[in-house]
Design brief:
Length: 342
């Protein structure tokens, strides 16, 4: 076959195949579009559905509220963030259902989703909206009931001192102390709320900001909290007291005298002087009776600790003492004391 006729034949075949190629190309493009487009539309549709179901949580119709709740439970982790936003709207019905949905997420096998839901509920429990905080706390309490022992071990590993036994109130429970041995972070303070049976908490010399104090507000069973030299603000302590109305909060700015006595029994008799303390350096002795600080009368040891607690480390206070010296009359002694820190 001549070359001209050969090339003409090839050209005819290509020309005939072109429509088929175009059809095939078009088919592949169409299929690709169908594969990609539904995924995009599906994500968008899912977000729209979640938003609609959340709106229906506050519906006037019970059946609609129930159906929306079931749908959001099935959605699971993808609904967490929209649910958090819905809680901030202030509708208690929506809030209670949103928290119930997150409780189902906590019961799932998705570790990341559980951690996310738990973190969101902890933030709600630490918030200033008391009804919402209570709902979140109850949900967390149910979830964390089995996690108490693990939290306790983690706290002890981070330097917390935890003692179990009968406390001064006569009740059996746990006493937790965080002092200069504590090397945990702020987020680790959340572990305190997971440990069951804590009746007394002491934080001595560990710096706490407002967010940290909010975490302590979840310790519903605690009866006494000591905050010594934490740098906490008066406002944050007041909010903590509002969250824990049954707890006695002993807040001191960090000044330490270094003496012991019997609380709530007057007069303010010194029964112990710590070696090397500010009191020892100033010459305060065992058996001295403190009668005044900076001109203010001191009736008992409790009053002494309260007045010292108003001062920070390094501040100086004027202390007036009555001292009974054997073989001589009682005499009034005044000394200037530069306070230590917790």
């Amino acid at each position: 076959m001549p070359f001209t006729r050969y090339f003409a034949a090839i050209g005819s075949l290509l020309w005939a195949a072109a429509p088929v190629a175009c059809l095939l190309t078009g088919w592949f493009v169409a299929v690709a579009e169908e594969v990609i487009a539904p995924a995009v539309e599906s994500d968008s549709a899912a977000a729209t559905s979640i938003s609609q179901w959340i709106d229906q949580l506050g519906s006037a119709q019970f059946a609609q509220r129930e159906a929306a709740t079931r749908s959001l439970i099935e959605v699971g982790p993808a609904a967490i963030e929209p649910l958090i936003q819905s809680i901030n709207r202030g509708d208690l019905e929506v809030t209670s259902r949103a928290i119930e949905i997150m409780r189902h997420v906590l019961a799932s096998n998705d570790a990341d989703a559980v951690a996310h839901a738990q973190n969101c509920l902890e933030l709600l429990a630490e918030g200033s909206n008391i009804p919402v905080a209570r709902l979140a706390e109850c949900t967390l309490d149910f979830h964390l009931r089995g996690m108490s022992e693990a939290a306790r071990k983690r706290l002890e590993m981070l330097g917390a001192v935890i003692v179990e036994g009968f406390l001064s109130t006569g009740q059996r429970g746990l006493q937790v102390l965080l002092n200069n041995a504590w090397h945990g972070g702020i987020d680790d303070l959340r572990l305190l709320a997971r440990v069951r049976g804590v009746l007394q908490l002491g934080v001595h010399g560990v710096q706490l900001d407002d967010a940290s104090l909010a975490m302590l507000g979840r310790m519903r069973s605690v009866e006494r909290i000591e905050l010594y030299g934490t740098g906490a603000s008066d406002k944050a302590v007041a909010l903590l007291a509002e969250k824990l109305p049954a707890a006695r909060i002993d807040f001191r700015k960090g000044g330490k005298l270094g003496v012991g006595g019997q609380p709530m029994i007057g007069p303010c008799l010194i029964t112990h002087v710590q070696d090397g303390s500010a009191a020892a350096k100033a010459g305060i002795r065992l058996g001295d009776i403190v009668v005044a600080i900076d001109g203010e009368a001191v009736d008992d040891f409790e009053a002494l600790t309260t007045k010292v607690g108003r001062h920070g480390p390094g501040e100086a206070v004027q202390i007036d003492l009555d001292r009974n010296t054997p073989g001589s009359d009682d005499k009034r002694i005044s000394c200037l004391v530069q306070l230590d820190g917790w």
